[in-house]
Amino acid sequence: MQKSPSKRYAGTLLEIIIALGIFAFAAAGLVVLSLGALTGTQRAEDRLRANAFGQQAMEAARAIRDYEWTNLPAGTHGLTDSNGYWELSGNSDLLDNYFTRTITVTDIDANTKNISVRVSWVPYPGATDQIEFTGRLRDIVSERWTQTVEADFSPGTADKIAVVDTNGGALELIRMGNWTEASILTTYDFGGDADVNGLTVVDDRLFTVAKNNGADEEFTVFDLTQLGQANLPELGSVELSTVCNDVSVQGNYAYVSTEDGNEEIKIIDLTTYQKVNGINLPGSNKTYGMQIENNMLYIGAERSGSGEEFFAYDISDPLGAMTTPAGSTEIGERVSSVDIQGNYAYLATSHDSRELAIVRLSDFLLVKSIDVEDDENMRSVIADGNSLYMGREGDTDNDIKSLYIFDISTPEGTVPLQNSIKLQNGLDEDITDMVQIDNRIFASVDNGSQEIAVILLNPLSIESRFDLNQSTVSDTIALYENYILAGTRHNSETLQVLQGGEGGAQTYRTNGTFISTAHNSGSSSTTYGNLTWTASGTGSVSFQIRTASSEAELANATWVGPDGTSGTSFTSSGTAITTAPGAGTQWIQYQVTLSGDGTQTPIIEDVSISY
What we know:
Helices cover 12% and strands 47% of the residues. By secondary structure, the chain is mainly beta.
């Protein structure tokens, strides 16, 4: 019997379905096998890449160790390339947006660290692969000179920088305090009844000169490290038996300007406190303001007929004969104050038409004279860069100012008046003396009240005025750290000390320099590694170093930066040291310059030199 077509077709369809099933099963197996092979290949490639990243991290750790041991602090870190140098950064780093790498540093001892590198990744959801490397590194530098506590920094030499006890010891710019809230800290009685005419601060010493004080000394030196104590320790004094007006100091000698017509300048040995020499100016003069610059003593004097009122003497040998001045200039009236900048002397005078006189020091020629409003005398002068500040005798006329500011960028050309200000309208007040600190002028005032003025230079304004005790007059002013020192005419509160306030906006010096003690590496063949430091606060920091074969030679060695020349500075911690060409290397010293904006300060917490 013949099969029906429908049954035949049904059997064929079934066979096809079965065949397809068998094929699909086989194909699925092939797909699984292919995917497994691909996954295995990918994971093998991942491990190769992870291995390379791990090896890279270990090599980077060695490179960091070679560059600066202290750049490997304990902790968990990532890694970054900064200008061609490896640095630890953050807690981990992400590579190719796939691998996570961590470097764990553990201190074993001061010279040994354990380095553990882990590279991990997620090949597919729910799975994590990782690879690890470990090793130990030793510091390849055998020695390290570190300054980190107050006792380390204190023996150094600080200029406008304070050694503070922050975190055990640190360097920062001197804090000036808040000058709108200043107050009198203390007063001192110097004995006798003479007025204090001149104050000069050198290091931690206060040099004072006074009018003829009878049987008492006119020249006295005090120890300022004890400022604020009940008694200010006296280091030495000399009886000069004449009116003394100003004092300048260089090395172990003080130079005092006097009104002794036979010997106007007295020279005092500061090791013995004896007068050891003197200068008799031509004619019979009274002498006033002075300044020392490059072994030359510049002197302002009283008008002397047709003679000179400005003199210069070579004081390279303080004990030698000084019979002839190195130079002199006829001004025509008394020279009250002198300031030297570059090749020019700037003189405050009592001349009616040349209150400001500018003398070129190469030939002592009067190259410029300025008539400064009316005919009042100029009492004080300060040259700073392109600006010249002059304080004058007062006048009740409100148009006659107290402080004048000139542009001296071209001393022999046009010297324009930039600005001026009056201390107080309607009052006849003299600015008797001035000190400029950064953006401020601190002035002593000839007045029975508000005898101290603080003048803000930018913008030009009177920041504050202060009364001294006993409504006395102040003829001279000096600054020491964050203290104003006012010399007065009072017979029992001769020196009055003001301190900046603690509240409100604080002010700091805008720049300062610290020179470390000298360090003996112990070998004439020393090779130095890197200069590192820890800094905080706000502002900029720069270092230089100098080396020499002996401590004595170090004092005259050249300060250099990272390339071994004087024109560069270290500005990045961890930079390699290159010494000056031909310099010995057994002894080393660093200097650091801190700079701020006057409202904040950078802070140096520690300094380290490896060798």
